[in-house]
Amino acid sequence: MGQVFHPLETRLGKLPSKSQGKWLDWYLAHPTHPLLSQLLGLPNEETPDQAKITSLFQQQKSFSELVSQLGVDFERLRCGYDGNNSRPSRRYPPMFETHPYLRRDGSEARSAVFQAKSPEGSNEPALPNEPWFSETSARKRLVGFIAKRELEEDVPTWWKSSGLEWPSVVEGDRYKASTVESWVKRFEKHIFEKHLSAEYYPEGVKARQVSEARSRREIADSVVPHSTPASGFVAFIYADGNNMGGYIRRKIQSPQQYQQFSQDVFKATEGAVYKALKQLKPRRYKPDTSSSRKNKKETWLYPFEVVAVGGDDVMLVVPADAALSVAETLGNDFERLLG
After folding, report:
1. In angstroms, how far is CA 26 from the centroid of its own chain?
2. Mind listing the pLDDT tens digit for each residue in 158-199?
3. What residues make up the domain containing 64?
4. How many domains does the structure of the chain reveal?
5. Do 160 and 191 fall within a single domain?
6. Are residues 70 and 198 in the same domain?
7. CA 304, 208, 217: angle at the middle one, nearest 5?
8. pTM surpassing 0.85?
9. What is the pLDDT of residues 222-279, one digit of tens each?
10. Which of 3, 53, 279, 305 could cross-link 317 (Cys pair, CB 3.0–4.6 Å)?
11. Which of 74, 129, 77 is nearest to 106 (CA)?
12. Claim to verify: residue 323 and residue 236 sit in the same structural domain
């Protein structure tokens, strides 16, 4: 869903002919109206003068008003309103079938289309527990394999036997290595570009010897060399900037400022994440029988997973023993870089 706006509205916000809200003349004529404090964000007991009313009104009337309107429209669409009818429609959000006799996949309760079974004549399963996949979950699993570099060059047997096609990702029996780049790969590049390899990697360990964690269990069971045993627990760290929406409404007035602010925030967020993760040096991990790793020898791995980095939002999975330190560094460095 979108809207058509006049070019002038990218500078002055919604024009009176298209807005049902109050305009400056109404604000100036009703300085004591009870709605004034809510519309302008004032304390209830304050009665502003005309200069302050004008300043606050001008602060609201900018490109941010268009963004806010589109955000409201998006939320209404998710709740079932299609923009024309007054009653919610069952079309939004999408409704998945719930027939009780259908086979479901193992993670999202969608209708399964195939099972990742072991090849004929082989005693080795294609995947642990031979899970059922919907088309969606199968594609997600394949991208996860590629991103975490679990594959050599050939696509896994379970994908080839599924009958699914994905020309932009898979060519014949091989996948395109440039399809997706994981956050761990980006972290590696950051270490090399900043010449921090000698500081980050343990003595005698090269980057090519360190692999990505394939599950939360591997992160939980990873061990710092010459230290106490692993705790067996992980911590989820979720970080979000304080009052970013309020700052944008007050300070960001044009599309160009939105673009620059977005780039600045992402740069600060990414930099803070990298600095926080540098504390988590590679750890040792010994695969057990339930591990999907074919090689059961002890190996080095990056003891974290970057679930998401977007705007001012961050979600990380780290060993529980390092959670407080990582969270503190992340928050402090984000404020320093963005301040």
Report:
1. 42
2. 888 888 888 888 877 777 766 677 888 899 999 999 999 999
3. 9-78
4. 3
5. no
6. no
7. 30
8. no
9. 988 877 788 889 999 999 888 887 788 778 888 898 899 999 999 999 999 999 999 9
10. 305
11. 129
12. yes
